[in-house]
Design brief:
Blueprint lengths: L5 H6 L12 E6 L5 E2 L8 E2 L7 H6 L1 E6 L2 E2 H12 L3 E4 H4 L3 E2 L2 E6 H8 L5 E5 L5 E5 L6 H5 L31 E6 L16 E5 H6 L5 H8 L3 E3 L14 E3 L7 E5 L2 E2 L29 E7 L4 H4 L6 E7 L6 E10 L6 E12 L3 E12 L17 E2 L5 E2 L19 E15 L2 E17 L28 E18 L4 E19 L4 H10 L4 H7 L4 E20 L3 E17 L3 H4 L4 E2 L2 E2 L29 E19 L2 E12 L3 E13 L4 E12 L3 H5 L2 E8 L5 E9 L4 H5 L8 E13 L4 E18 L3 E2 L4 H10 L3 E26 L2 E19 L12 H4 L2 H8 L5 E11 L2 E10 L2 E5 L1 E5 L2 E11 L4 E8 L17 E4 L5 E5 L18 E9 L1
Parallel strand pairs: 2-11, 6-10, 15-18, 23-49, 37-41
Antiparallel strand pairs: 1-11, 3-6, 4-8, 5-7, 9-10, 12-17, 13-14, 15-16, 17-18, 19-20, 19-51, 20-21, 21-24, 22-23, 24-25, 25-26, 26-27, 27-28, 28-29, 29-32, 30-31, 32-33, 33-34, 34-35, 35-38, 36-37, 38-39, 39-41, 40-41, 41-42, 42-43, 43-44, 44-47, 45-46, 47-48, 48-51, 49-50
Length: 999
Amino acid sequence: MVKLKSKKIINKKIKLRSGFFFLNCLYKLRSNQTYTHCGLSVFASIALSFNVHANTVQSQMVQFDIKAQRADLALIDFAKQTEQTVVFSFELAKQYQAQSVFGYYTQLDALNTMLQNTELDAVVDQNGLLSIKLKQINRNDNNMMKLSGVSAAVLPLLMAVNSQAVNAQEETAKENIEKIAIVGSRVAGRSVEDLPVPVDILSAEALENTGQTEVGRMLQSIAPSFNFSSSSISDGTDALRPATLRGLGPDQTLVLINGKRRHQASIIHINTSVGRGTAGTDMNAIPASAIKRIEVLRDGAAAQYGSDAIAGVINIVLKDADDGGKAAINYGQYSEGDGETVNLDFNKGFALGDEGYVNVTLNYRDRAPTNRAGLHGSCQFYGCTELSDGTLLAGDPRELTADRNTFRIGDADSQQFGLTVNTGYELGDGELYGFITYSTRDNESAAFFRHNANAGGNPVLQDNDATIPLGFLPKINTTIDDISYNFGYKTQFDNDASLDLSYTYGENSIGYTTSDTINASYANFLRYDQGLSAADIRATIPREAYAYGMELSLQTINLDFTQDFDDYSFAMGAEIRTDEYRILEGNEYAYRDYDTNNGVSIYNGLSGGVGSENASGGTQGFGGSSPASSVDESRDVISFYIDAEAYVIDDVILSGALRYDNYKGFGDTVNFKLAGNWSVTDDISLRGALSSGFRAPSMQQLYFNNISTQFVVGPNGTLVAEEVGTFRNDSTLAQSLGIPKLTEEKSQNRSLGIVYNVTDNINVTVDYYSIDIDDRIVISNRLGKGLSSSLDAALVSSGAGAGQFFLNGADTETRGIDFVATWNTEGLGGTLDFTLAANFTKTDVVSLFTPAGSGLETVPVEDVFSDQEISIIEEWQPEDRINLSALYQRDDWTVNLSLNRFGEYTVKDGGSQTYSAEILTDIKVNYFVTEDLSVNIGANNLFDVYPDKNKIGNSRLGTIVDANGNTIVSSPGVFEYSRRSAPFGFNGAYYYIGAEYRF
C-alpha cells in the first residue's frame, strides 16, 4: 500500500481521487477464503459480492446477527449475511466503531443502525449498489458507489498506471476477502476522474439496459468512442464485424479477458469495408450474460501491455459469484417483420467447498436474417435492347415475370452457442485461478445474384440456355469456433510483494462453405470432357463446396512481480508468446478452373457457336483456396517490462513504464509511458500522459493469400466482378516486385484532461488526445495490368486480374476530444441518473509512400493507394458520437432512455456521398413482478430511423419495359443503403420483450 500522504488524503475527505494514478483495492467476500490481489492505493475500497436490485435493497427484510465491532469488519459481516455488494474505504471505515444489529431489518435500516454515532453514511446508486461515504461529502461518492462489480483479474489494467497489479496483504481483515486492483470506475459511460487517462467501466446492468443481445452492439450503445460498423455482401465481414476505438483500426485496440491477452479472430477484412486490411477481435464470442463488467481504457498502453494497444485497451471481466445466478429469455424482431431473434441465458455460481468458486454461463442466440435490398432493375436474360431514353426493352419473355427480389442485403442468418466458466480456488498462500470460454457460431450471408445473362458465372450450355436458367443466389456459410482457456497461480508475500504466474491459450477458426452455387468452368468440363447433355449437366453439377478454412491461435505465459514500498511501488514481469496461423485448403471443386490451363482456354472452338467455352473457375460467390495457398506459420515473441510510481509532492503522483518486445521477424522494439495527475483543488484535477507504442504486423497480414471475386465500381459507375489476388509479402510474386517484409507500426500518444466536480452530484471530465502513427500497415489498391511491366508479368503468372499487397505505406494523425458529464439526483418519486457522453475524432492520412527500390516505386502512389483506401481510414466512421441517457428507478420499476447521435460520415465508392447525422432513440422498461422475477419491454431505434438512401456504387439498376411500353420494373439499384459502411446498420426499429429470473 502506498502510505505516503495518507493523512493528507484523509484530510481531503477521503475522496476517490488524490493524485494521479492510484489503484483502489476492492475487497470481495469469498466465504472463508483469502484472496489478496491489490494495487497501488492510498486506501482500499471494499466490495463484497452480489448486486441486487434497488427495490430489494430498500424493502427486503433480512435477519441479522452482527456484533458491535470495528466498522470495516461489521460491513464485511453485513455483506456476508445479505450477499450484497458494499463499496467502502477500508482505511476510512476502520477508524470507526459500529453498533450491534440483531433481528429483522431492511438492509438500509440495518446499515443506519450499525453506523449510528459514526461519520459514515449508506447510500444506494441506480443499480441497487450500496456504498459507504462520509456524511459531510457527497461529491465523489457517485464514483465510489459505482465501483461495484470490479472483478478478479482486472489487471493492472487500464492504465497509465500500469502497475501490473500490485498486491498487499491486509492483515487486519479477519474475514476472508479478495483485494482486487482497479484503476477507476465508470458505469454506463461514466469517466473515472481518479486516473491520468480516461477509463470507462461498464457494468453488467448497464450492458443489459441497452436491450442489445450482442456485446459489440452493447458497447457501441454506451461507449461513444467505440464503433461497430455494419456492411453487407462483404464475405466473412458479414459474420464478424470490425470493432474500432477512437476511429482507428480494429487491430489497434488490445482486448483482454480477466486481464489476459485475448487472441484475434482468424479472419482478415480484405473487402471494401471499415477496417479493410486489418484483423480484429471477435467481440461477440463472449456471451454478455457471462460478463461482470467491461473496462475501456481510452489511451495508448503498449508500454504496459505490448502490441496493439495504440487506441486503447478493452478488458472483459467475467462473473465470479460463488452462488446465485439467473435465467433469462429475450425475443424481438424488426419493424419490417424480419430479423427475429431469440436469446437464452443461464448463469450460476457454485461454491467449491469453503475455498473457491466456479461460475458457469450458457448462452444460445438465434437471429434470423434481414433484407433491405432494392429491386433488380437490370435485365436478367439475354435479348434486351436499350432504347433512346436509356430504358431497356425486354426480349426474352421470361424477363416479364422474372423475380425482382433477387438479392439479400442485411444481417446474416446466425445461430450461436456459448459456454463460459470462471473459477478460483485458495491453495496454500495464494489462489489457483482460471477460465474457459467457448463459442460456436453458424452464419449464412448472401453474395451477388448470378442471373441468366452472365456468361462467366452462369455459362450457356448447348441448348442455348444458362446452366441455371432462372439464376441463383450463392450463399456464404461460415462456422466460427472460438475457444480459450487460462490457468494461473498468484501468491502474496509478507513484505508487500506478490507473484503471479499464468498460461493462456486461445484459438479462433473459421470455415467457409459456399452453397446454392456452381463452378461455372465445371459445366464446360461436363459438356466437353464428359459429353453430358444440357439436362444432365443441370441435374449433376454440384451446388455446394467447402471453400477453405483459417485458424489463428495464441499461447502466452506471463510472470508478474510487484512490490510496495513506503514511498513508491514497483512492478516487473516477462511474457513469452507464440502466434500460429493456418489456412486450410478447400475442396478442388471450390477453387479449380476446369476449362483453363495456364491461362489458356482448353475448349476453344469446340462450342460450334452455341454456348460457353471459357467460364469462371471456382465456386461462384465465394471461391476456394488451393493447396498452393495453404499456410502453416508461427511466430515467437518475448517481452519484459518494468514500471514504478510515486508521490512527488502532496497532490501529484507520477508513474512511468518501460517495455521491451522482441518479435521473430522484424526484431525488437522499446516503448515507454509517463503519466501524472495533479489535484489542483478539492474539485479540480488535471491529468495527462505521454507514451510511445507499436503494433506488430498481424499473422494474417503477414501470411494471408488468396484469389477472390471482388465487386468494384466500373467505368460506367456500376459494380463489376474482378478476380483479385491477395499476395503475402514473402510470395514469389511479391519478391519478384521487390516488396519488403512488413515492419511494426510506431505510434506517439499524448493526452491531457481535466476533471471538475461542479457540485455534489454533477461531475464533468474533458480529455484531449493526439495519436500519430508512422508506417501504418495498409492494404494496397487492386493493382491491375498496365501500371508496370514487372507487375503485368507477375499477374499473368498468378492467374489474377489484379493484385493487392500489405504495405507499410501511410502515416496518419488522429486528434480528438472525449467529454463526459454526469448528474445524479432524485425526482418523480425515485432516482434519476443522467449521463452525457461524447467523442469527437478526426483522422488524417498525412503521408503515403511505396517501398523504395521495389517494382511499385515507379507506380504513382495514387494508383497504389486509391482515394477510396484513404477515405476508409479518414471518413468511413462518424466524425462524432454523442450519447444522452437517463435512468429512472422507482420501487419495482426501472426505465432507461437513451438518445444516440451518429455524426456525419463519407463513403467513396465510385462517387462520394456524405451521410447525414442521425439520432436513434432506445428505451427499456423493466418491472419486478416478484423479488426474483422481472419482465421487460423495449425498443432499439424506437422511431425507425434509417441512414440516407444510397446514391453511389449501386448495382442492377435500370428500367425495363415490354413491347407495349409498360414498365416491368424501375429501380435505382439493389443497394438502397450503403453496403460499405453503416455505423448503426440499416434495419430500422427493433422491438423486444424479455423475462429474467434470479436465484
